[in-house]
């Protein structure tokens, strides 16, 4: 019997290692070959500032909570700001999400009562982890220097600790403490962590109330006290940031206008949240299909009537529904990357439903269909990134500029969003500026991480002694053409184009026109 038990345990470890290996391969493939884009370089430039300056900019000019910036600043301090280091933090977080999904399912679906319908826990845990490992949206954000890979990590691990605290009699207050800590850090990583926390506390409150009402002998030790203490701790720990959160909300509502959320937009963004754009045209009709599919999944879960089933339904639906409702009263926040944690729980629900299929042939058919479908989407995303990595892009453009610039040559960038990226690839930041003044740009174009001495007003060229000026322009970028329009008295003497995955960069050289 011991030999059989050891064999089963080794088999479980082997399957988990296979899933982890797949996840790691996808997340490190072409990790460094694709250039930073604005959101990444904005984040990196934010953590370049001294701590107090960074926090001031985060509070007054940004619209994100601070925890990811703090972790990234420490990470960069330890490992450096080379191109290889910052993205590895996101890879590490995403790997923690994959492993956390496995342990969450193992914990949430442990058989605790004789009348509880048992799911094939190991099967469901491996399948759920595999779906998250393959999900293109998780792979995509694992390869970028942003908080969207860290947010689902805290969501899944806080849920793991919540189930340990609720269902293990000897869990102790330290488990409740870990739940509060990880849930709180999720909210301090991204504001959608508040929706996940709402789902968690609502589930725990409902479960304890129902079990106490039933007076089940198996749950007589359940008490509201640890939950109320945990809720109070969460509230008072987030309270210092609440005013900042409200200020952030007001700022983005007033200064970052977005189109109103329509039902067509809901449909298309549902497709994007579940990665369908990699294989099919994204349409509102396809979004209806996605909604119906998950409605069926949640209905099948509800029929089973296990606590974890209700939790998965709540943790999946609440952020989506809350985002739709909030978007009716302020700027649209129904954005796929914001919903990445809710998407994780929805994928987990699919894995559980398939694992519940009693007939082996149908169960494995379900596994084949969902894994093949997700694998196909992942393959398309992988090929797209491989193509993006083959383009000369930002690295080649900046290398060309560095090689051509001579001492004293001025270099002007057409927009702060490009400037924040260029500074991380150039070997010489001297005489490198963004054209114009801070007043020329809205705050969401990177002004929060720009210093005043990083702007150059073109009016100053009249009194400048520079004989040559280089400009960094962009075509097909953000839906238009962005250029440094040189004043009279300068003539273009050379031009070079570099294709990037989201634009075409143009390096122009101007010299003073000495002809009267």
Automatic annotation (TrEMBL):
Recorded superkingdom: Bacteria
Biological process, per Gene Ontology: lipopolysaccharide biosynthetic process; response to iron(III) ion
Pfam family, one: PMT_2
CC terms in the record's Gene Ontology section: plasma membrane
TM stretches of this protein: 12-38, 66-83, 88-105, 125-141, 148-167, 187-210, 222-246, 286-303, 310-329, 335-354, 361-378
Membrane topology term: Multi-pass membrane protein
Keywords from the UniProt entry: Cell membrane, Glycosyltransferase, Membrane, Transferase, Transmembrane, Transmembrane helix
Sequence ranges assigned to domain Glycosyltransferase RgtA/B/C/D-like in this UniProt record: 63-208
One example GO MF annotation: pentosyltransferase activity
InterPro entries referenced in this protein's UniProt entry, alphabetically: LipidA_mod_glycosyltrf_83, RgtA/B/C-like
Localization (cell): Cell membrane
Name assigned to this protein: Glycosyltransferase RgtA/B/C/D-like domain-containing protein
Species in which this protein is naturally found: Gimesia aquarii
